[in-house]
Automatic annotation (TrEMBL):
It catalyses: S-ubiquitinyl-[E2 ubiquitin-conjugating enzyme]-L-cysteine + [acceptor protein]-L-lysine = [E2 ubiquitin-conjugating enzyme]-L-cysteine + N(6)-ubiquitinyl-[acceptor protein]-L-lysine. Pfam families: HECT. Residues 1-142 form the HECT domain. Signal peptide: none annotated. The active site is at C134. The gene is Herc3_0. This is HECT-type E3 ubiquitin transferase. It is an enzyme of class 2 (transferase). GO terms for biological process: protein polyubiquitination.
């Protein structure tokens, strides 16, 4: 039985995917030669490819730039009070809403910044928050 299980596992995880993996690897290395990856430590490469999966949300708050707001405005204080009470998964959903991804890739967390702007509309009660994912700006009505 052990030999059968070993052969089956080897087939499923190695042999059956060997050709597709080799094709993928050949294409990948054509666009991104292996010599370029050698400058990274494994941990750095993982962050570069996968992004950060854990965050210091208070550091994220400190790095925000405000337009037509200050960090002492009631709307901003309310936003951060509610945000910090959210469960981790909801905070990541906000990050996906803001940036298009629930991870921060290619950045040191200390360098990741985004903006919160007042869209300055006539009736803010009729406008929902929206985000510009290209510029990392959350438009938050008062």
């Amino acid at each position: 039985r052990k030999e059968y299980v070993d052969l089956y596992v080897n087939y499923m995880f190695n042999k059956s995917v060997q050709k597709p993996f080799e094709d993928f690897m050949q294409g990948f290395l054509r666009g991104c030669p292996a010599r370029n990856w050698k400058m990274f430590f494994p941990e750095e490469l993982q962050v570069l490819l996968q992004g950060h999966t854990t965050f210091d949300w208070h550091l994220l708050e400190k790095n925000v730039m405000y337009k037509h707001y200050t960090k002492l405005d009631q709307t901003i204080r309310n936003f951060w009070t509610v945000f910090h009470k959210l469960p981790e998964e909801k905070k990541k959903m906000f990050l996906a809403f803001l940036s298009g991804s629930n991870r921060i890739t290619g950045y040191e967390l200390e360098c990741f910044t985004f903006g919160i702007a007042d869209p300055q509309v006539k009736n803010p009660d009729e406008v929902c928050p929206c985000a510009n994912t290209c510029y990392l700006i959350l438009f938050l009505p008062r």
